[in-house]
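Support request, please re-run this one:
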Amino acid sequence: MTQTTAESPVRKQRAQLKTRTLRTDRWWLAPGLTFAGLLVFLIYGFWAIFDTSHLAGSYIAPFSSPCLATSCPEGARLFGFAPFGDWYTLPPGILILGLPGGFRLTCYYYRKAYYRSYWLSPPACGVAEPHKKYTGETRFPLILQNIHRYFFYFGAVIALILTYDAVLAFRDKDGNWGHVGLGTIILVINAILILCYTFGCHSCRHITAGRLNHFSKHPLRYRAWTLVSKLNAKHQQFAWASLFSVMLADLYVRLVAKGIINFPFA
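Re-run finished. Output below.
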């Protein structure tokens, strides 16, 4: 540690290193894979927004749920209602994907992921970044990251709706209960992963009991906090698993709706 004396003033700028990093391992691999994974999801999401094949029997494509306009098929409407009526004619994904999208965009883990992979800020530990200044999340637009808690509330609602859609997947095309197909299993697994990711969020952990000083006085909240903490410990894994599960579940429903997949157990 450098001792500050009258002859050695405090340094107010970053150390000027001639080399980008002294690391010899493949430090670029993790941000590279993250870049590719997020890019695949963004490309698919853009396509899914404008695809109209979002209902196959009792299967509802997650990227188009809930469907809130009369232009949506009746089976895809949330509880059969269409509060947006006839005036809304755009694809349903445009209306609702901003809510879970905003939740993930402001998520603490995803911030780290795309800061490193897209902005190289920094790309890895011990690797210099190209930015000369660092202001954190104190200025526009990054100051908007602070609304993550409010996006959590919307994300929780969407997670519960996708769970409801997974329950509806136990009906056959005629509306009879007891159907179990490959799509049913896929939608149920997706709903579980979405729930684990959503309710393992750091904001959920703080809301549950983050400001309590005495856990012993709030045993129910402490028990809930303990459960959320266990999910939070795997937040990164659930973030990726749910990201691809919702994409694969959505793609499966659309392929069934288009008649590309028509297995007896679909």
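The chain has a mean pLDDT of 85. The radius of gyration is 23 Å.
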